[in-house]
Amino acid sequence: MRNIIVSVSLFILAACATDLSQVNTPNNKATIVAFEDSSFQFLVPLSTSASTKIEYVNGKKVSDFFTSTHILHLDPGPHQLIVSCLIFYSGRSYSNDIEHQMVLEANKQYVFTAHLSPNHGCIAKYDVNEITTQ
Asked: pTM (2 decimals)?
């Protein structure tokens, strides 16, 4: 019984990290990915865990306490996103909401990651990946 509990716990911990190779981008859409490196790792003392979550898109709330939006497919063009970030580092937590005015392009993946910031505690930055269609 103990082995089953440990196996299920490890599966839950592993399943919470964002695997970018598993994110599909539909043709002629832009994909927004809120990266999560390993949720629940904050339960391990003095470990580091970083995550982002898409809160609002064009003024519409897409996440709440019970549901977190980590992947969205949007039409190309201008969009306003509010992305939250959360970092657990050395037993402390840092969080912040950041507004991004973006012009999205089709067939690109915008990946948000959380970073420590001396002025804001936590900020969400993004990288753009070109998606090749087959």
From this structure: 0.75
